[in-house]
Amino acid sequence: MIIKRSELMRVGVLALEDCTPLTMIGPMEILRKAGQFCQSMNGLQKPFFDVQIVSSGPKMINTANGYPIFCHANIHDVDKLDLIIIPGLDGDVEKQLQINYSFVPWIKDMYNKGSQVASICTGAFLLAETGLMNGKNTTTHWIAVDLFRQRYPDVDLLPEKIIVDNGNIYSCGGATSYQNLMIYLVEKFCGIEVAHYTAKMLLIDINKNSQSFYSIFSTQKSHTDELILKIQNFIEQNYEVDLSLDLLSEYFAISKRTLIRRFKKATSNTPHEYIQRVRVEAAKKKLETSNLTVSQIINKVGYEDPLAFRKIFKKFTGSSPLDYRNKFSFT
After folding, report:
1. This prediction's pTM
2. Where are the beta strands (DSSP E) in the chain?
3. Is the pLDDT of residue 309 over 60?
4. CB 186 within 8 A of CB 31
5. Residue 57 confidence (pLDDT)
6. Residues 240 and 320 in one domain
7. Do residues 175 and 32 both lie within one domain?
8. What's the domain range around 35?
C-alpha cells in the first residue's frame, strides 16, 4: 500500500472520567508507533497517525486508578477527526455513562461529519448511547453482556467476537483486546506490512483476531440494502461450504436474477465474485498466521480444485499462495 500525504489520519482518543487508563494510553501508543513505522516505510514527511487525547471538560482528567491524564484538546475545539476511539468504562458502567454523557451528542455529530468510531471493551455502552449502533453488530466485555442487552435491545451483540467491523464503526471485547483492534485498524489504513511489523515489534499476537478477514470489504458495506448486507455477512461466515447462487437464492427467498442485480448494485461485485474475494481473504489470513499447508488451506476455504484456486488467488493478489506466505507470514 502506498500512503499519500493527504491521507494522514487525525485520531482522537476520548478522555473519559474514571475510565480504564490502559484502554486510553495503550491505543495511543500503538498508533503512535505504527504511524512512525508507516512514515519510515512509505517515505512520509510525518507519522501517519496524528493522535490526540480529547476531553469534554478540563484538560486534566482522573482515571479509574487515580492517575491524572493531561488532554491535548477539548471536544468544543475539535471540528474534524478521521477516527474517534472510545476507551473502556470502569466499575459501575451506568454511573460512568452519566458522568461522561456529554460525549454522546458530540460523537454522533462527528460521525455524521465523516468520522469513524471505535469502541474498546465497555466503551461500547457509550457508543450505543448515540443510537448509531441500532441495527448493527457490536461486542463488549463478556462480564457486561447481560446489562448491554438490557439497555440496548436494538443492537445485535456478538460477545464471542474479539473484533466487530461495521465498515466505519468498530468494537472490540475485553480491555486488552484493544491491541488486536489497533493492529486491525493499522492494517486497514496502512496496509499489511506496516501492521505486521508493528505487531512484531510490540509483541502483539494477531492470531486472536478472528474478525480480521474482511477489512477490504468495509467500503462495500456502506450501502443501505439490508438484505444484501445479510447475504454478505452470510457469505463471510460460511465461505468454506458450497455457496452456490441457487443456495443463496433459496435461503434468502429472492430470485437469482434479482439477487444478482441488487448485489451488483450494492457492492459492485456479483455474488460469485464476492464469494471468491472472501475466500481469497480467508486464505491470505491463514497463510499469514497458520502453519497449515497450502493444500490444507485451499480445502478449508471451500475449494476442491487446487489449480482453480491458485488462478483465482493470483488474480486478486498478484502472487501465488506460497509466494504470499513467504512475504507475509507471521509464524
Report:
1. 0.67
2. 9-14, 49-55, 60-62, 68-70, 73-74, 83-86, 116-120, 137-138, 156-157, 163-165, 169-172
3. yes
4. yes
5. 85
6. yes
7. yes
8. 5-207
